[in-house]
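Look over this record before class:
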Amino acid sequence: MNRRKDLLIFSNGPGEVSTWVQPVLEAVRARADIADKYRVILIMHPCQFGSGTEHRVGCSIDGIEQIVEKRAYMRMLLTGIGKRRYNFAREGIIFSLGGNLMHPVLFRKRIRGKHQLYAYSHNPGWGKQYKTIFVRNSFVKDMYLSRGVPDEKLIITGDLVYSSLKHLRERNEVRRELGIGKGERMIVFLPGSREYMTKYLIPLFLKVIDDLTDRVSGLKPFLLKSPYISYELIEESLAIGGKIKGVDSITGTLHREDGQQGIHLPSGKRVAILEGQLDLWGKGVDFAVSIPGTNTLQLAYRGIPALVVAPANKPEIVPIEGAANMVKWIPLAGTFLIRMAIKSYIKRYPLTALPNIYMNEEILPELVGVLETDDITLKIQELLTGEDLAKIGERLSCFQFDTNPVDIIVREVWGNPS
């Protein structure tokens, strides 16, 4: 019996695992002519923006047979220790779906493999080592071309996040299950999946919800919990509610009874916590409040108007790419330098939401910088009571593709179905 080849998938963060890795694997599994030929191993490599729980979500993705966590990967890469445990095949495919393209190149050398290298990426560098790099649009392609990557190695597919979208429930079903009346509006708050942000954002969002529902009638607010954060983290977050320096926030009491999760506020209001992501609830949502990240793309592709909030009140907790991240550890001056660096970054790159960056204009409204809680509340109130939501919805219609991006990728790597 011939041994299967390896399909080694490299990824680095929560958004990439959910919206890049998952659709590619679903498309591979749908093709019996290729699925049976490969053993699929997900390799998580270091990323300062990671949640640390990506491997848990990876375990739930059908088709992944083994997962190499970040520490195990780095130990293997630097020392070779652990290679025997996985008994890597010498041939197959290494596919980068998130992060620095350096890692697959170095790892192939470490295991002395003859794997073909593929990537879906917007991070230039190391591109000449790859057989094919799939890119979102011509702008990203031009970045690679400017780095000397040959044109024949680059294929424009559209955004792979688009391929990850699922609509598991229709609008009426969502609203009926959640008890949302005909004249009420469903508003979801997405505090993200990264511990360093989520911990501080939940108490802030709870304060916004408490104030907003006093000012605007007919709202049904919800917190949409990422699968990458735990209820223990939510408990930690609630413990610091009302104690965060420089911004109003409130605490609450977490209740989990009969499969119903919610936070009871001091005012007596209850904020329900939803699991299942936008796949499950998106059809019922009228408006969303999100931090920058992959969620903003999912909202755009679903046509959901949203406010994107990027507080810079605690810049010292935000990771910075590269060696500059070490600046924060400089005694006394570190926090000050990080604050200055982030203020400078905001001036140079004022757009933070991915749909806005892609289109180079503010399609989803943004609030960026040192924010008061009331800044967020007033902005949401303005959007909900004016005519802006309809205009935002119209502008989001540009986020569509004629061809499913993942279909292009699978066809180029493995050919048409046999």
